[in-house]
Design goal:
By secondary structure, this protein is of the alpha+beta class. It has three helices and twelve strands.
C-alpha cells in the first residue's frame, strides 16, 4: 500500500482533475505519483448487420494523427453509462441502436488514472440524423468486420478500446455467448 504524504499540485480541467502527490511506498521510500480523476466512459462496437460495423476517423492531438476507432466518449455528470453509449453513438455517427450488449469494462491507464471504460456492442441501428460531432469526427465509415480485424493485426488500428472491444466481441461470438437475436 502507498500513503499520500503531500499534494504538490492539482490541475482542474473541464472534464478531469490531475493531482501530483508525494507518497510513501510500502518499503518506506518516498516518490511521486500522478492521479487523474476521470469520469466513466463508454465505447460502442456498432453493427449495421452481422458482418459490418461503423467506425469513425478522428484526429487525436496527443499522438498527432488521425485514427480509425469505434465511437466513444465520457459520461456527463449524473449520466448512466449506457445512456452515454447511445448518446455518443448518435453524436458521432448519426445512428441510434435498439440493442446494447456490454462486452467488457477496463481501466485504460491503470497506472495513473481511475477512468473506467465500458465497451458495448450495439445492433438494430437506425439512421436518425446527420452526426452532430463534426468538430472531432472527420468521417464515418462502414467496414466489414473481417477487414477491421486485419487492420488491427497489421497495426493500422492501435486504439486500445477498439482492439479490446472487437477482440472481446469475437471471443464471445466464438464461444456462443452473443445472444442469437442480437442481429435481428
Amino acid at each position: 500500500m502507498e500513503t499520500r504524504i503531500k499534494t504538490l499540485g492539482i490541475l482542474h480541467a473541464a472534464h478531469f482533475t490531475a493531482q501530483l502527490d508525494t507518497v510513501r511506498l510500502r518499503t518506506g521510500r518516498l516518490t511521486e505519483r500522478i492521479k487523474v480523476d476521470h469520469p466513466e466512459a463508454a465505447a460502442v462496437v456498432p453493427f449495421l448487420d452481422s458482418e459490418h460495423i461503423l467506425m469513425v476517423r478522428q484526429w487525436r492531438y496527443a499522438i498527432e494523427r488521425e485514427t480509425l476507432e469505434i465511437p466513444a466518449g465520457k459520461a456527463d455528470p449524473g449520466e448512466e453509462v449506457l445512456i452515454c453509449a447511445n448518446r455518443e453513438l448518435q453524436e458521432e455517427t448519426g445512428y441510434r441502436a435498439e440493442r446494447f450488449l456490454e462486452l467488457f469494462r477496463y481501466f485504460p491507464a491503470i497506472g495513473y488514472s481511475n477512468e473506467v471504460i465500458r465497451i458495448y456492442a450495439a445492433s438494430g441501428l437506425a439512421r436518425i440524423e446527420a452526426r452532430q460531432d463534426e468538430d472531432e469526427i472527420s468521417k464515418v465509415e462502414v467496414l466489414p468486420i473481417q477487414r477491421v480485424y486485419d487492420l488491427m493485426v497489421d497495426g493500422t488500428i492501435r486504439d486500445g478500446k477498439t482492439v479490446i472491444g472487437l477482440s472481446m466481441f469475437r471471443t464471445l461470438r466464438e464461444r456462443g455467448q452473443i445472444p442469437g437475436d442480437f442481429f435481428s
